[in-house]
Specification:
Chain lengths: 330, 333
């Protein structure tokens, strides 16, 4: 075990995979001597730059993600640093529509093992916050992971690099340098893509979240416990493909669902969780499903506006109170 | 015609036979596919660019062809004609298994990069990435990225040229300049010279007569040799004209038929035939025989493709959208 931040865990996972597999390489803007935006590639240049495996890119996001797609088509395993998720619109054709379709359209003749890292989220950096990942949920063939802590970040980064599909790897800036955890050093430590986890067990309500919203949901659950409400928290970890089984199993027991999202309420990926439960566990619900998510405005600048925008523990608690007031007999 | 490739100079007729075959095959395919698909993007008038650019690439060279010419590009790269035509007809037996239109998306098995969505430009980035992979692996494979005068307006084109230049990647950019983008004439779509753009990105940029197959082929061979030697990218602007409609059933009421007729008089196949006869490579009878062989080959392939099974609902197979950890049977890792 090594005590590491989220950022350090990501970089360690990449370095270890680069040592393990010569096809893994890193490209992006300022990933070289600069060490990556927010230190996202810190130390990789020193170890792998001489081999040409850490490559600084011109400000051409669409084409350098495209170049990563093209290299992946030829068997390489590129890890692209997109810098910020705000740039997603610039690369949606290459990373989404095209890379996501290649395996299926080619009749399985090719796969595109590609990781695209993107920093995002309301946090200490006061900018580049937009959470646009939901756009990609609507594009077949693309995976999306959103770890909430350093341990999962390391295990999911490894899984993403070893995966044979394009994977969007979300790195929340409020979690990036915030605190350290004991992170496994074990060579075989991998967190599988497509598996949620249940960091807190409970029996009255299921709260589904990811990334920073997991942290806030856990804080809310703590407060609720003191009130005598037992909340189960599911950390999705993977947004696509969704771990429907874990969600359905939990909601089948609790009968209540609150979904928490940093993406805005309309069209956000959290709505898929709601749909899955509505379609497959309607008869187990004892209360209407509630969503806790930002309103439909662009991420605001001033801290007070930002605070009003982003769901916090109080908002989650309020939603839980509303669903627990309902008690249709089980 | 370029005398540097005269059979007297090269001592071989094989090259000329192969180039002519690609050109006449392309013309035949236009008719055979067009009869079944009104949206087929024909290549009439531009065959010299296709043959000159697509001939002679190695298996591991990456090729992002122009969509107008994708099937002849795949054929030149060694793909099976019947399978290609089955793909154009959406049959299960096509390389894309009926999941995607093979007229604009060549088989990945032959390292072709297709239009995986209908938007022009991104394949230039994918080709550049193929070249990056070759460089990282220390192989001397090259990537060929072909676009039209229309596609030259995409930022992707300039971004790919810039990236290939700064990374000194083995890419040959070819502008198949047919002077019209659907209905938009070059004068309304392209500012300046595309070859000049290549030069402005710090690479060699050359303009060739796109109706002279030997000029195109000669420029390609030089660019490929430089790329293989690690000397970086080249831009070739091959100026030709789209005698064909944008698609087979195009009414073409947006352009002056006299302009089309004038270019038809400069037909690249007829010009090459005259040269081949003059140089004594083949006589008229031999060329006619090659035309007939191509026609029979293509027609047989198409007849078989048409008889092939069409996909059914089971073939939709949504569970196959993600690549597995280990390849499924019949899939490449």
């Amino acid at each position: 075990m090594t005590r590491q931040t989220f950022q350090q865990a990501c970089v360690t996972a990449i370095a270890e995979e680069m040592r393990r597999d010569r096809d893994v390489f890193v490209l992006g803007e300022d990933v070289g001597t600069f060490g990556g935006p927010l230190k996202s590639t810190n130390g990789l240049w020193e170890e792998f730059g001489g081999e040409g495996r850490v490559i600084d890119m011109p400000i051409s996001e669409g084409t350098f993600v495209g170049a990563a797609v093209g290299a992946a088509m030829r068997g390489k395993r590129p890890v692209v640093d997109l810098m910020f998720l705000e740039f997603l619109a610039l690369v949606t054709q290459q990373f989404g529509l095209d890379a996501g379709a290649m395996h299926y359209y080619s009749g399985g003749a090719i796969s595109v093992p590609l990781v695209m890292r993107a920093k995002y989220g309301v946090g200490p950096f006061h900018g580049h916050a937009y959470d646009f990942h939901s756009w990609l949920q609507n594009i077949p063939g693309v995976k999306i992971v959103a770890p909430s802590n350093a341990v999962d970040a390391k295990g999911l980064m490894r899984a993403a690099i070893r995966d044979n599909n394009p994977v969007l790897f979300l790195e929340h800036m409020a979690l990036y340098h915030a605190g350290r955890m004991e992170v496994p050093d074990d060579d075989e430590f991998v967190v599988p893509i497509g598996k949620a986890c249940v960091p807190r067990r409970g029996s009255d309500v299921t709260i589904v979240a990811s990334a920073l919203m997991t942290k806030r949901s856990l804080a809310a659950a703590e407060t609720l416990e003191a009130e005598g409400i037992s909340a189960e928290v599911i950390d999705l970890r993977t947004i696509v493909p969704l771990d429907e089984e874990t969600i359905l199993e939990s909601v089948s027991r609790t009968g209540r669902l609150v979904v928490v999202s940093e993406a805005i309420k309309t069209g956000g990926s959290h709505n898929e969780v709601v749909s899955v439960v509505a379609e497959q566990a309607f008869d187990r619900l004892r209360a209407p499903i509630l969503r806790v998510a930002p309103p439909r405005v662009p991420v605001p600048f001033h801290r007070d506006l930002e605070k009003a925008y982003l769901p916090d523990a109080a908002d989650i608690i309020e939603a839980v109170h509303r669903v627990t007031r309902h008690s249709i007999p089980a | 015609m370029n005398n540097a490739t005269s059979p007297a100079t090269t001592g071989s007729n094989q090259l000329h036979i192969e180039l002519y075959h690609l050109m006449t095959m392309s013309r035949v395919l236009d008719r055979i596919i067009g009869e079944h698909d009104g949206h087929w993007h024909g290549l009439e008038g531009e065959e010299a660019v296709a043959a000159g650019v697509y001939h002679g690439l190695r298996a591991d060279d990456v090729l992002a062809p122009h969509y107008r010419g994708t099937i002849i590009a795949a054929y030149a790269k060694g793909a099976d004609l019947r399978t290609l035509l089955a793909g154009a007809m959406g049959k299960t037996t096509g390389y894309n298994m009926g999941r995607y239109r093979s007229d604009i998306c060549g088989p990945a098995q032959y390292n072709l990069i297709g239009l995986y969505s209908g938007s022009l430009g991104p394949p230039l980035g994918y080709a550049t990435g193929g070249a990056l992979a070759a460089k990282l692996d220390g192989r001397d494979d090259v990537a060929v990225a072909v676009f039209g005068d229309g596609g030259s307006s995409r930022g992707d084109c300039h971004e790919a040229m810039n990236l290939a230049s700064v990374q000194k990647l083995p890419v040959v950019f070819v502008c198949q300049n047919n002077q019209i983008a659907i209905s938009t004439e070059k004068k309304n779509g392209v500012g300046g010279s595309v070859a000049e753009r290549g030069r402005s990105f710090g690479m060699l940029g050359v303009e060739v007569d796109g109706n002279d197959v030997l000029a195109v082929h000669g420029a390609m061979q030089e660019a490929i040799a430089r790329a293989r030697a690690g000397e970086g990218p080249t831009t070739i602007e091959a100026v030709t004209y789209r005698v064909a409609g944008h698609f087979y059933s195009d009414a073409e009421d947006y352009r002056d038929p006299d302009v089309v007729d004038r270019w038809r008089e400069r037909d690249p196949i007829r010009a090459y035939r005259s040269w081949l006869v003059k140089e004594g490579v083949l006589d008229e009878a031999g060329l006619n025989r090659m035309d007939e062989e191509a026609r029979v080959h293509a027609q047989t392939a198409m007849d078989r493709a048409l008889a092939d099974p069409a996909p059914t609902a089971v073939d939709l197979a949504p569970e196959l959208v993600f690549a597995p950890d280990t390849p499924r049977e019949g899939e490449r890792p």
